[in-house]
């Protein structure tokens, strides 16, 4: 587990943009039980999270169509919440960072680490914006 003083600014980057931090399995279940679309960002301390995943997610939230709710869990910090979120992401293996879009609790779009690492924030934002246009 990472110390909160290290990860708090990384989580705040998303929270300050209106993304809700989910800290427990129950919060994950409640979020994914809601009707509509839910974005789940599996945040991470790695360089690709800082360099492209978080900036890409933030840029995607400027799209005309948006998910009903945007949420985040933090790998290495919110262990049980991350585990619960990953259960909803099956058949994809655990990955961080990762970004998943759900519609009425069903996974409809997934960006795994290998879709993030080595790609620009702009490419990630475009990918997510396309998913929002299709599903939101």
Describe it for me?
- It is a single chain.
- Helices cover 47% and strands 20% of the residues.
- It is globular, with a radius of gyration of 13 Å.
- The chain starts with a helix and ends with a helix.
- The chain has one domain (4-135): 3-Layer(aba) Sandwich (Glutaredoxin), CATH 3.40.30.10.
- The protein is an alpha/beta fold and 136 residues long.
- The longest helix is centred in the last third of the chain and has 15 residues, at 121-135.
Give the SSE layout:
Layout: H1 4-15, E1 20-21, H2 25-33, E2 37-43, H3 47-60, E3 69-74, H4 79-88, E4 98-103, E5 106-111, H5 113-116, H6 121-135
Parallel strand pairs: 1-3, 2-3
Antiparallel strand pairs: 2-4, 4-5
Helix pairs in contact: 2-4, 3-6
């Amino acid at each position: 587990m990472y110390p909160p003083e290290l990860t708090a600014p990384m989580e705040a980057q998303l929270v300050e943009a209106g993304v809700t931090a989910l800290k427990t399995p129950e919060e994950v279940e409640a979020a994914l039980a809601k009707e509509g679309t839910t974005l789940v960002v599996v945040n991470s301390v790695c360089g690709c999270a800082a360099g492209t995943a978080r900036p890409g997610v933030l840029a995607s939230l400027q799209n005309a169509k948006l998910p009903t709710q945007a949420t985040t869990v933090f790998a290495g910090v919110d262990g049980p919440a991350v585990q619960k979120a990953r259960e909803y992401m099956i058949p994809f293996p655990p990955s961080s960072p990762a970004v998943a879009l759900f519609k009425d609790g069903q996974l409809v779009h997934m960006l795994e680490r290998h879709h993030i690492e080595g790609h620009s924030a702009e490419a990630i934002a475009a990918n997510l914006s396309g998913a929002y246009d299709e599903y939101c």
